[in-house]
Write a structure and sequence with these properties.
heterodimer, A: 394 residues, alpha+beta, 5-stranded antiparallel β-sheet, 23 strands, 14% helix, globular, B: 215 residues, mainly alpha, elongated
Chain lengths: 394, 215
């Protein structure tokens, strides 16, 4: 305990030092930054769908390690449930299926389990869908359906241990309180394999960045499967059912699946050779400057974030000549598993005019961010090189 | 002229002819493409009044129309999408589905630009789905009918029993006492609420109003 306190104090000192250092740098860079003109990517959120509310975070927000709750991307199939269903007095978490002891837990009961905090990237499986060619149906997410937040809650494993999983229990089905407007629309029912559910880092979160989980992010409880895409991170969680098989229904058996091997664009669905979207793929984003910015001839700090599913980021490279040559960025800031890694690069533009900056990351498992991701019918897992075009003053 | 020179002359000629043919081919393809684009534009303009009304009435029960407008899909995928929505309970008749697929694949096709020219706002009002009777005496709302119309068109946002949801609670809402404001809002929309003028008839709106007053 005392060790973690002193380590968190050290972190605090480091942060304060960084802020002071940052202020000094800020004073130097201010004139250059002031010349950057406003771009359309700086609003509070970019709304993709008004109802149910789907919105992405403007990439410039990603200059910060933690994405603030009110800017964090929002995605659900049906929107939040009626407030009375998730009011603390009424809300219960039911644990059933192939277990020894069915549980019905209040939020207070749940908080009796050991409290754990994990910083993790959450990313919509369809983030970057708009970049797939040929185009595919679905919310046309560009770059911001992703964020990094600190999640606090309890281990799903601890809850499962209390319930006692029977030997034939292999999958954990997750159901939230959200309901479609029309009752003939299938529920958003998902499942994860028992190994992922019982992993000590898989948690049921009731706080986000130190605040009670906001309604749009799944209040009062959501699943966090660090390293995996957000379709496993069920919001407004009310039912956990241990089963022998994967969950039945559209959102598990049909949706959120990708072909095992690459297929030709617009070719038929390969049927049985589709597997669920699970781990994230290696990816990086340029947070600053942003598209359309004007930058001066002086050194420009190019910065952003990079992350991968179940491995750490080993390098981030930038190219200013359309991918012919690459230069290595410096990894900076916090280095935590499942969180993203911040990076910086001091760029000295050689000449004025339009310049496209490309960015790609490589992870410790050797995965390299490709120029373009393999096409798939629903446009999942886009991780093509990130690109930002700016104008360098003549 | 030696055989060799003659051969090279013939070759040059052939090259010139094939060049011309190629150029002609490109011209034909370009003209055809332009004609097809014109064709798509006129199809989408002709179908827009009814189709856009249908999108508000049938699709926006579950999701706002912006989800539709951001897609750029070929006809087969539009067909599959409309089919999926019918299967999931969208109240789309067969002839409406045909019209929707024709319209959607004409306006929101893969070659359409990201920013489409706005729909003529006049179009939206042009053709109510329910035709008005010629004789327009004073409207008398029928509450029982209004309940059904509310359930299919308004409940998604305003909640069962008009108790509120994404949209405000309408039961006992002061707006019900201000006929002009109520009609203005329903006919022309307000904030995130779409205009219903091309979807609901005057009688429908009067029925909903009468039913709401009983809540």
């Amino acid at each position: 305990m005392s060790e973690s306190v002193s380590s968190s104090r050290r972190t605090l000192f480091r942060r304060v030092a960084k802020i002071i250092g940052g202020l000094a740098v800020w004073r130097q860079l201010r004139p250059a930054l002031a010349q950057q003109t406003a771009s359309p990517e700086t609003g509070p959120q970019t709304v993709r769908v008004m109802r149910p509310y789907d919105a992405e975070t403007p990439v410039r927000e990603f200059t910060s390690y933690v994405t603030p709750n009110h800017r964090f991307f929002v995605r659900s199939h049906f929107g939040p449930p009626a407030p009375e269903l998730i009011a603390e007095a009424n809300w219960r978490l039911h644990v059933g299926g192939l277990i020894e002891h069915p549980l019905e837990l209040t939020l207070k009961d749940l908080k009796e389990f050991e409290r754990v905090t994990i910083t993790a990237v959450i990313q919509c499986s369809g983030n970057g869908r708009a970049f797939h060619r040929p185009k595919v149906p679905g919310v046309q997410w560009e770059r911001g359906a992703v964020g990094n937040a600190q999640w606090t809650g309890v281990r799903l494993r601890d809850v499962l241990v209390k319930a006692g999983v029977r030997p034939n229990g292999k999958h954990v089905q997750l159901q939230g309180a959200d309901r479609p407007v029309v009752s003939t629309v299938p529920l958003f029912t998902r499942s994860i394999p028992l190994e992922k559910a019982a992993h000590p880092d898989t948690i049921l979160a009731y706080e986000m960045n130190g605040r009670p989980l906001p309604l749009l992010h799944g209040a009062p409880l959501r699943v966090i499967t660090p390293g995996w895409m957000a379709d496993s991170c069920t919001k407004w969680l009310t039912e956990i059912t241990v089963q022998a098989d994967e969950a039945k229904g559209y959102y598990m058996q049909t949706a959120y699946r990708v072909p095992v091997t690459a297929i030709q664009p617009n070719s038929g669905l390969p049927g049985t050779s589709m597997v669920p979207v699970e781990a994230m793929v290696v990816k990086s984003l340029i947070a600053s400057p942003t598209n359309g910015d004007q930058v001066g001839r002086g050194p420009v700090t190019v910065q952003g974030v990079a992350w991968s599913g179940e491995a750490s980021v080993s390098t981030v490279e930038l190219s200013f000549d359309d991918g012919k040559t690459w230069e290595q960025a410096r990894l900076v800031g916090e280095d935590e598993p499942y969180a993203w890694r911040q990076w910086q690069f001091l760029w000295k533009p050689a000449a004025g005019g339009a310049v496209t900056i490309l960015c790609r990351a490589t992870d410790a498992a050797g995965q390299v961010q490709p120029q373009e991701s393999p096409w798939n019918p629903s446009g999942f897992l886009w991780n093509g090189w990130d690109r930002v075009t700016v104008t360098v003053e003549a | 002229m030696s055989v060799k020179r003659e051969a090279s002359f013939v070759k040059r000629e052939l090259r010139a002819i094939s060049g011309l043919l190629f150029f002609g081919g490109v011209l034909i393809v370009a003209m055809t493409t332009a004609a097809q684009e014109d064709d798509l534009a006129s199809v989408s303009a002709a179908l827009a009044p009814r189709a856009e009304g249908l999108i508000v009435a049938r699709c926006s029960v579950c999701h706002s129309p912006d989800l539709v407008a951001q897609q750029r899909l070929p006809k087969d995928r539009w067909l599959a999408t409309v089919d999926k929505m019918k299967h999931w309970g969208a109240e789309i008749a067969d002839d409406e589905a045909d019209l929707l697929v024709r319209y959607l694949s004409a306006r929101y096709n893969p070659d359409a630009p990201d920013q489409l020219p706005p729909l003529d706002s006049e179009l939206r009002k042009a053709e109510p789905l329910t035709q008005e009777p010629a004789d327009t005496g004073p409207l008398v709302g029928v509450a029982t009918r209004g309940a059904g119309i509310f359930e299919h068109n308004c409940q998604a946002c305003h909640g069962a029993g008009a108790t509120g949801g994404m949209g405000p609670k309408l039961a006992k809402n002061p707006i019900l006492k201000h006929d002009d404001l109520f009609w203005e809002t329903v006919l022309h929309g307000r904030g995130p609420m779409p205009a219903w003028g091309s979807v609901l008839s005057q009688q429908d709106i009067a029925d909903v109003h009468t039913w709401l007053l009983t809540k």
